[in-house]
Amino acid sequence: xxxxxxxxxxxxxxxxxxxxxxxxxxxxxxxxxxxxxxxxxxxxxxxxxxxxxxxxxxxxxxxxxxxxxxxxxxxxxxxxxxxxxxxxxxxxxxxxxxxxxxxxxxxxxxxxxxxxxxxxxxxxxxxxxxxxxxxxxxxxxxxxxxxxxxxxxxxxxxxxxxxxxxxxxxxxxxxxxxxxxxxxxxxxxxxxxxxxxxxxxxxxxxxxxxxxxxxxxxxxxxxxxxxxxxxxxxxxxxxxxxxxxxxxxxxxxxxxxxxxxxxxxxxxxxxxxxxxxxxxxxxxxxxxxx
Length: 290
What we know:
By secondary structure, the chain is α/β, with parallel strands linked by helices. It has a single domain (9-285), classed as TIM Barrel (Alpha-Beta Barrel), CATH 3.20.20.100. The chain contains twelve helices and nine strands. The strands form two sheets. It has a seven-stranded parallel beta sheet, with helices on one face. It starts with 8 loop residues before the first strand and ends in a 5-residue tail after the last helix. The mean pLDDT is 96.
């Protein structure tokens, strides 16, 4: 899948802050993104205001796509599974083939499709050996419930092993932002194998990095647009993927794609970035024990 614009959008906020206003403005923002040529949208079954509203965000995406009256050629909707949520808001992980199949089938139903465009393994399961989880992904591919397979929160070593065992990987969704720059060797693997790198929480901490605001003022754009341009500059494999809940934020992010930062800009950003935040503790606790 080739995308004319190297940007996609997620809309998790509308499901974790579920007000009628957020719901409506998010759909408007997604329609605006479609009008602007954006063709990649990301969700997950776990994005919901409560455990008993599992799939809330997938339903929102489905409504936004269904009610859009323009051209949807090339549209790709990606979702994720592998995190569980139960009564009392008990969160866990499950990478068994049985669970992942049921999760993907439920996602397809909520999105109103017979075959998912892209399905991504959301988080590793610390209760299962890593190799067993890869075998689950092999089983998923064999069932034909999705067109493309992605993974999320994998290390470079795990990604290389997934390619060996499972076959081609469409995308990797790992955390990356101006303030969180862990495991950039994953990006190197993506470049080697032509895998799309989808940064999650890409705008995290933007307001705390003065150099982004400084360059934005020089260029007449927001610090967030500069952050989008900076992420885009890191690799041709990056599909920048900010969250969106308002038309204004969608247009601002899309504007960032058109900005070309000079070598001087990039050098100043590199020197002005803070030390990266440490590895996300959940990513460490999710690691299989063998």
